[in-house]
Amino acid sequence: MITNEYINRAIDYILNHIDEEITVEDISNYCCFSRYYFSRIFKMETGESIYEFIKRVRMERSAFRLKVEKDRSITDIGSAYGYSSSNYSSAFKKHHNMPPYKFRRSIVHKSMMNPVFRNTQTELLTWQECSEKITVEIFEDCTVIFERYKGSYGDLSVHWGAFLDKYKEYITEQTRILERSYDDPAITLPDKCLCDICIDAPAGCTLENICTIKGGRFAVYHFSGPVEHIYSAYQNLFSVWLPQSKYKIDDSYGFEIYKKTDCGSRHMDIDICIPVK
Asked: pTM for this structure?
C-alpha cells in the first residue's frame, strides 16, 4: 500500500500530466520538498525513481493508445507524449522490446492471454454482443475514501477485506464500493499496476485519504460473472467495442462500481466505467 500523502499527490500529478513535459524538479517543487529528499522517499515508497516512473507510465500510456486508437497514426501518438517520430520508436522499442508498429499488430493477440488469472481463457465477443452489454452514461464527481496499491490486480481481494473492515463505520446501505484501476495488465507488468480501492465518503468526513473521482461521460460495461472473467470484459471494451464505436477514450481514468459480490462463488455484478468523448 502507498500511504504517504505526498507520494500519492506526486503520482496523481504525474498521471494527470503524463502527456506534458515533466521533470523531477517539477514534482519535487509541487510537493514542496527538495529534489534529493523527495526522490529518495518516492523510490522507497514505490520501488521506482521519479524519472523511471514518469518514463514507464509515458511508454505504457502511449502503448495503450496504440491499442485502442487504431485509426490514429503512430507518429501522432508519439508526438502527443513529447517524442519525435524517431525518438519515440527508439524509446518504445527499448521499453516494450519491439517497435510501435509491431506492437500495434500483436497487442490484440497478446491481450488474449490473461496475465491476472493465467488459467482463464479470454473470449472476445462481436461488436454487437459488446454493445448489448454497454450503455453510455453521465456521472457526477464523487468524493471517496481511498487506499492505493501497487501490484497484481489478482491480489486485491485480500486488500478489500481489510479495507472494508477498517472503514466499516463509514459504510451504509447507500455507500457505493468503487475500484479505480490505472493500468491495462496486458501492457503493464502485474507488479507495477496501480489501483485505488474506494468507498463513498460521507459528508463532512475529515479523513486525510480522501480524493475526488471526476465525473463526465462514461461507457459502462455491465458485467455479471466470475471475477476471473473481468479481464475479458475489459479487453472487449478496449479491443472490440471502442475501436468500432463512435467514441474515443478520454484522458482521465476509469473505475468499477461493485453492485453485488458473492465471496463463496466469486460471482460479481459490476459496472466497468471507461471515460469517453
From this structure: 0.92
